[in-house]
Write a sequence for this structure.
């Protein structure tokens, strides 16, 4: 696991069997996003693309906060002049976060977000590209960009994909702040827990459920689901059939069917 052994400035990484715990580690600024943090997260997810030994990635924030959005001090300092005939450098910089969110959104691993404290703006977008989200009741959420005169440009499409365009319009155009129960009602969170201790317990419960699932089968299933709504149904079903064949011919399926016949757990459950 040499790729994940490097010393990161803004992340804490911990490998636990087929699980990779990734903790945003700028607690002094509520894990606000700066170029270093985004770059280090991008490196981690780039390294994960072809890693079949990692089944699940757990995203969390140090110091009791998931992520309070962009580091506004850094945003003020990064204002660059626009040159005639060239695309605005602000747009290019903004688009990089969307590229990163695409990477997380489509990573073959299951991404689990464990959220407490705040998930605001860019941090809210990061939450919305997770496959499973567990949030505490008192966690705070907002698409707060419009309240400071900017646009939630890169996160809005991912929020809309998660909860629909009408709800996204409401959240973005009011910069509404809300807590865990509303996040659950909207479909942003899948599980709501009382406090940090309950968050740990629910996280372990979810991880044990994911342990039961085969890594390749999960990756291929995720790829199928991600096609829904972006292509005609017939194309999605063709793609899905090919992924089914790929899985069926894999050693995983052979092991899973054999384990079922022998009334035992498949090897990937305990590896």
């Amino acid at each position: 696991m040499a790729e994940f052994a490097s010393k990161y400035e803004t992340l804490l990484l911990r490998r636990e069997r087929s699980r990779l715990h990734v903790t945003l580690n700028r607690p002094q600024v509520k894990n606000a996003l700066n170029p270093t943090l985004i770059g280090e997260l991008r490196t981690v997810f780039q390294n994960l693309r072809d890693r079949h030994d990692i089944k699940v990635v757990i995203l969390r924030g140090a110091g009791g906060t998931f992520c309070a959005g962009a580091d506004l001090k850094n945003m003020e300092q990064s204002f660059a002049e626009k040159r005639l005939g060239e695309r605005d450098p602000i747009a290019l910089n903004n688009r990089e976060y969307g590229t990163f969110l695409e990477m997380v959104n489509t990573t073959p691993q299951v991404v689990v977000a464990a959220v407490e404290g705040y998930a605001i703006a860019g941090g809210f977008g990061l939450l919305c590209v997770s496959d499973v989200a567990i949030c505490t009741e008192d966690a705070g959420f907002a698409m707060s960009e419009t309240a400071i005169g900017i646009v939630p440009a890169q996160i809005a499409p991912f929020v809309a994909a998660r909860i629909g365009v009408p709800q996204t319009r409401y959240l973005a155009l009011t910069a509404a702040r809300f807590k865990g129960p509303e996040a659950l009602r909207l479909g942003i969170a899948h599980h709501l827990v009382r406090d940090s201790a309950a968050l740990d317990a629910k996280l372990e419960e979810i991880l044990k459920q994911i342990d039961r699932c085969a890594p390749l089968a999960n990756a291929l299933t995720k790829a199928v689901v991600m096609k829904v709504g972006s292509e005609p149904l017939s194309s999605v079903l063709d793609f899905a059939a090919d992924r089914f064949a790929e899985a069926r011919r894999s050693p995983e399926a052979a092991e899973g069917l054999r384990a079922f016949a022998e009334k035992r757990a498949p090897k990937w459950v305990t590896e």
